Amino acid sequence: MSRILVALSGGVDSSAAAALLVREGHEVVAAYMKNWINDENIPGECPWEQDIEDALGVCTRLGIEFRVVDLVEQYRERIVNYLIEGYRNGTTPNPDVMCNREMKFGVFLDYAREQGFDQLATGHYARIRTDEENRSWIMRGLDPNKDQSYFLSLMRPEQIDRALFPIGGLLKPQVREIARECGLPTAAKKDSQGICFIGQVKMSDFLRHYLPDNPGDIIDAQGRILGRHKGLHLFTMGQRKGHGVASPREGIAYVVIGKDIPNNRLIIGYEGDDTRGLYARSAIVGTVANTRLPLPPRVMAQPRYRAPAVHAACTYIAEDKVRLDFDQPVRALALGQVCAFYEPDAERGEQLRGGGFFEEITST
Ligand SMILES: Nc1ncnc2c1ncn2[C@@H]1O[C@H](COP(=O)(O)OP(=O)(O)OP(=O)(O)O)[C@@H](O)[C@H]1O
User: What whole-number distance in Å separates Cα of residue 197 and Cα of residue 75?
Assistant: First the structure.
């Protein structure tokens, strides 16, 4: 039996995680991280008050202690600023991945350790495997539709050693069933959407609040002006909608194929396998120093949460930087995005080996 702190969001997944740990006979305390309170009144509603109420209801039902930990200041420093800076620089930040390393398994884990807990459990769909040498590794969650290991790819080994993912070996319907069996008030609660802290606030409203419009031209690969945009930060590679340029050809859409950051120009082209700029054959990924062991010479690289992992050759070019040469061209990579690395040991790569940020992209 160990003392475990459960990160309880007020959603069904972490509620079921807490229930399973209680069932196993551990000493369990649950805590809600208060990260974001929308004190600047960005349009939309932030459901945190409801989440705290639901989390409290779960703890009452399970007979465990519930705490609320105020991390609003740290969240602003480590996540909100990173997000705004990323967009300001024209890159594509990923606050959910950073939130796991910097908040949940960063300041929140520090809090847990100070309070005498041995481990921190979350409701992530991921698994932990311990190898013969007693090293812990993150594996993909068993439910292929819910696997969240991508979001854990920047975690440091010492953070992984303290992590527990009680529902990672279950399918989502089983998780709901456990919550129902235990009579938890969250059993039928809708899954949360999108960025962890923004809740119901739309990303575009959030960005508009912090970053003023910065209009510029929309051009094609030949430099012809096709329209105007309100700010490069409102677009991402491969985006089909929202640029407002109608395609003159039936059935083929214009997509974002690049950003000319110095000249504040958005570059669009027709969607197609050979669209210049849209497909990458190689990339440099930096800040990969946190891996438990050096990355292997062949990896499976996953560039986004919902994208498939692709086979690539992986070569170190500095202590914390690798060059990836993809076996097949990869669509719509963006600077600043997180690339997760998996061991190429199974069809989709089951074992997470680490992650980093795209620093350079070479298109086909
Ligand atoms: N505000 C929060 N306070 C405490 N823990 C949190 C909070 N937000 C997220 N977590 C933890 O991180 C896990 C993954 O968060 P994510 O936002 O992806 O939620 P989710 O997959 O919808 O899970 P849930 O159903 O538990 O909300 C949660 O299961 C929970 O353990």
Answer: 9
52 with 116, same domain: the answer is: yes
In angstroms, what CA-CA distances link 55 with 1, 30, 38, 180? 23, 8, 20, 15
Identified catalytic residue from 46, 59, 182, 196: 196
Rounded to whole angstroms, the Cα distance separating 149 from 353 reads 10
- Domain of residue 94: give its range: 3-203
What pLDDT digit, counting tens, does each position of 22-80 carry? 999 999 999 999 987 766 666 666 678 889 999 999 999 999 999 999 999 999 999 99
196 carries an active-site annotation:
yes
Q: Is 256 in the pocket of ligand 1 (CB under 6 A)?
A: no
Residues 246 and 299 placed together within one structural domain of the fold: no
- 114-159 pLDDT, tens digit each: 999 999 999 999 999 999 999 999 999 999 999 999 999 999 999 9
**Is residue 314 flagged as an active site residue?**
no
The CA distances from residue 32 to 130, 138, 149, 167, 284, in Å, are 28, 23, 21, 18, 37
